[in-house]
Design brief:
Blueprint (H helix, E strand, L loop, with lengths): L12 E6 L7 H15 L3 E6 L5 H14 L6 E6 L1 H11 L5 E6 L5 H5 L6 H10 L2 E4 L2 E3 L2 E3 L2 E5 H16 L3 H13 L5 E9 L2 E11 L1 E5 L2 H7 L4 H5 L3 E6 L4 H12 L9 E6 L1 E6 L7 E6 L2 E6 L2 E5 L4 E4 L12
Parallel strand pairs: 1-2, 1-3, 3-4
Antiparallel strand pairs: 5-18, 6-7, 6-17, 8-11, 8-15, 9-10, 9-14, 11-12, 12-13, 14-17, 15-16
Helix pairs in contact: 1-5, 2-3, 6-7
Length: 330
């Protein structure tokens, strides 16, 4: 297992800052970062993401500079929403560098789960004063996901939401409208053959599944908010698989409402299971050899079969060591 250097007070910060994330003032945020580092006597460098296509490139640059830092390796920091955090985590995992987060997104599931404040001044104090601790990472075909990964209907929801945002702007109502529009369209069910390995299946179990969407969770807070007991499985080092049985559009809207009320896990149209490793193939041997997959809100095409698993080594996250992470209420 690759572990980061013990964090010294001189460890510099290499911050990948996505100025397009969230609703905040990017200039004010950068000033807060600079002021906090100056007060603490810490060196820092900000790599500004002005084009989303460059996030991976800038994340790799930040990791390289952190590795070359002396006398101790630097901390690689993602300033942005869940998509930005995912891209920087992908570059940082296994690098020997610690990872930090300055949440700038809308939902911020990853940072909230690990007790990192949404306020940038408070989040900077975490970065400057806390130490790195190991946190679980999910992988699908070696692509990182910190919150969730999915295929089928859920990626379509994300694509439609982004298109609506481009046309109508960012707001909760725009997101709701895009989601309703997606659900009211006719969607073809996926026919999958899945192989599950988990606490209840020490010998891999093969089954066929017909579903409009398959969702894999790696975030206990999100699972709790939806009403799934698999939040406990994530805490125990596993992932949570969730599939929707084939339903009509009215049932789909009803399930959306149940999810908003935190009762989706109790719905009889849901199949949910914890696992250590999940292999997904098409039930039929013919057809496309790739599938559209969303990881932490970012969409890509991956080759089949898809293999979901917990990464063999953790991400070393700078997070509060004493404060309890945020969890869903009753």
């Amino acid at each position: 297992m690759t572990t980061p250097d013990a964090l010294a007070s001189a460890a510099p910060l290499f911050i990948v800052f996505n100025i397009g994330s969230g609703h905040g003032d990017a200039d004010a945020a950068r000033q807060s970062i600079a002021s906090a580092c100056l007060a603490a006597g810490r060196a820092h460098e900000v790599l500004v993401v002005d084009d989303p296509q460059r996030i991976a490139e800038l994340a790799a640059q930040a990791v390289q500079r952190a590795q070359q830092s002396s006398p101790v390796r630097g901390i690689v920091v993602a300033a942005g929403g869940d998509g930005t955090i995912n891209a920087v985590a992908q570059a940082t995992l296994g690098s020997g560098c610690a990872f930090g987060v300055l949440p700038q997104g809308t939902f911020n599931y990853f940072s909230r789960t690990h007790g990192i404040p949404a306020d940038i001044d408070e989040a900077m104090q975490v970065l400057l004063n806390e130490t790195a601790q190991p946190v679980q990472v999910g992988l699908v075909n070696e692509r990182v996901f910190l919150v969730n990964a999915s295929l089928g209907l859920y990626p379509a929801l994300l694509e439609d939401r982004e298109a609506w945002k481009q046309q109508f702007g960012r707001s909760r109502w725009v997101a709701i409208g895009a989601g309703l529009a997606t659900l009211l369209r006719v969607h073809r069910n996926l026919r999958l053959r899945i192989e599950v390995e988990g606490p209840d299946a020490p010998v891999p179990q093969l089954r066929e599944l017909r579903t409009p969407t398959l969702f894999v969770g790696n975030n206990a807070l999100q699972m709790e908010q939806l009403g799934f007991p698999e939040a406990q499985a994530i805490d125990a080092g596993e992932l949570a698989g969730i599939a929707l049985r084939p339903v009509g559009r009215l049932w789909m809207l009803w399930l959306l409402l149940r999810g908003a009320m935190g009762q989706l896990g109790a719905a009889d149209k849901i199949v949910d299971f914890p696992f250590r490793q999940l292999t997904v193939r098409r039930a039929r041997t013919f057809g496309a050899r790739r599938m559209k997959v969303a990881t932490d809100g970012e969409i890509t095409w991956l080759s089949l079969p898809l293999q979901f698993r917990v990464a063999p080594e953790p991400l070393w996250l700078v997070r509060p060591s004493t404060a309890a992470p945020e969890r869903a209420g009753p």
